[in-house]
Write a structure and sequence with these properties.
The protein is an alpha/beta fold and about 160 residues long. The chain contains seven helices and six strands, in the order H-H-E-H-E-E-H-H-E-H-E-E-H. The chain has a single domain, classed as CBS-domain (Roll).
Length: about 160
């Protein structure tokens, strides 16, 4: 008979992207301006937006894109089209992708976020922050389990 702890560790180690992804992805239509991007990012307090055309993701725009491609020029942000600053290349994973694979993809491509697509449709996004939160909670749980195991050993020795 397997113990509760064995099952618990098995569940933790089998985490998939779907378990930690953000489902409510903030998007922006492709025909907007850099000013629209900045205003929406500020309003939603986020650092990136998925660019949408006809309901499908076609790119990604980040605060870094704004700072490097707009703020370094003399142009007004309302005169800069989103298509001029967004990244057309974006990496993606599926909801059932193991977390380890998503992390490896981010490291291999030197990126901070991955779109989550299912049947070609945007269903989420996963960021470095999401991964850090997951790792923190896993470490806290692992630490608590180690404390529990040590306490159990102490009780067994004294009893």
């Amino acid at each position: 008979m397997k113990s509760f702890l064995f099952d618990f560790f098995l569940i933790i180690d089998m985490t998939h992207v779907r378990d930690i992804m953000i489902r409510n992805v903030i998007t922006i239509d492709h025909n907007k301006t850099a000013k629209d991007v900045a205003l929406l990012m500020s309003e939603k307090q986020i650092s990136s937006l998925v660019v949408i055309k006809d309901g499908n993701p076609i790119g990604l725009v980040t605060e870094r894109d704004l700072s490097r491609k707009v703020l370094t020029t003399d142009r007004k942000s309302s005169d800069v089209q989103l298509s001029e600053i967004m990244s057309l290349k974006f990496r993606w994973v599926e909801p059932m992708t193991p977390i380890e694979d998503a992390i490896q993809k981010m490291i291999n491509n030197n990126i901070r976020r991955l779109l989550v697509l299912e049947d070609g449709k945007l269903v989420g996004i996963i960021t470095e922050t999401d991964l850090a939160r997951h790792l923190r909670s896993k470490l806290l749980i692992d630490g608590a389990l180690e404390d529990f195991t040590a306490l159990k050993r102490k009780i067994v020795k004294s009893g």
